[in-house]
Amino acid sequence: MTTILKGNILHAPAFGALETVPGGCMVLEDGRIQGIYPVLPERYAACPVTDYGQGLIMPSFADMHLHAPQYPMLGMGMDLPLLDWLDAYTFPVEAHFADNEYARLVYRQLAEDLISSGTTRVAMFSSRHTDATLILMEELERAGVCGAVGKVNMDRSGGPAQEGTEESLRETLRWLEACRFAHIRPILTPRFIPSCTDGLLEALGELARERGLPVQSHLSENQGEIALVARLHPDCAHYWEGYRKFGLWKEGTLMAHCVHSGEAEQEAMAESGVWAVHCAASNVNLCSGTAPVRRLLERGVRVALGSDIAGGDQLAMNRVIAASIRASKVRQMETGEAFLTVPEAYYLGSTAGHAYFGGGGFATGQPLHAIVVDDGEMPRPVRELRLEERFERAVYLMEKRHIRAVYSEGRKVLDRG
Ligand SMILES: [Zn+2]
Description:
By secondary structure, this protein is an alpha/beta fold. The protein has 14 helices and 17 strands. The strands form four sheets. It has a seven-stranded mixed sheet, with helices on one face. Zinc ion binds next to strand 5.
């Protein structure tokens, strides 16, 4: 079925680019984009139109790194460095997800909050619990969120949140067997090198190879963590080699943070097609540092953004985009590396993440992932704003109440009328 969306269409098709079509028309065929036109071609004149008036039609967000079982601790306990923070706050909270009823309550709220904040794709960590992970996938599917979710593997140094090695592998197979969702796929998720024994990493690498499964984990977030990895794997000159050793460093592997990745590690990412997921808010909250985002991009590393809930304190990705710009400005003051512009950071928080799953942006043939923003109640400007200015303001100021509609994989999943 052919349908038309009308409004001010904005999108970032490439890093740094912003295309605008004021009062434009987007033609959809069964939810897939057929074209964007300044004036609707005559041949579509009889098709049903949803007219968003002065609304901004923009690509939705993709949150490429967040921890679902840390949602209950959002906005709290960011006073410790990474390893202490994990022991003091995170592991005890994640242990609660042995309770399926509790998991259902938290994950339903999280899935609904993602959609109402305009995030339609995710790469997400669950806890080690198989049943709670399946509940999470169900709730995301129900709310209309697409993407990848991983049951966490951790058989070392995890206190109440950890599992045995055999159990971890057995449960991973049980989880994979039960993963039958239309829009949410499994991704192997060794928590990070210090949380996994060699035996577990080796088995997961084998599983990734055998079944062609993608992998997500953490890399070079914090100096204490890097020193611990060096002690655990003295044969590895760099952190990333720990993943390579076990077959987990491969095309499409998502590595969160990369704050302290040096030249060699950056080169290895570019060469192998490993993605960096930049989590600026979390990196500042836990005093980890500011990541060399522009350097990574210049080297040819694919970069996307993550909220890193709950090291990050904001689920809304427009806030994460704003935090990335702010962190990049701190970095510019410290190192001279040029800060991220609004269209650049928006690209990383939307199109780049969508592209991980194929396509991205408002390219022809793509299933629609979009938000419609009504900025009518934002502060009254001194003159009529250009579309580029309204876009910038929306990125900084947008709240749930401004998001009028959300489309995910061609389906309208939120409609405030
Ligand atoms: Zn993380």
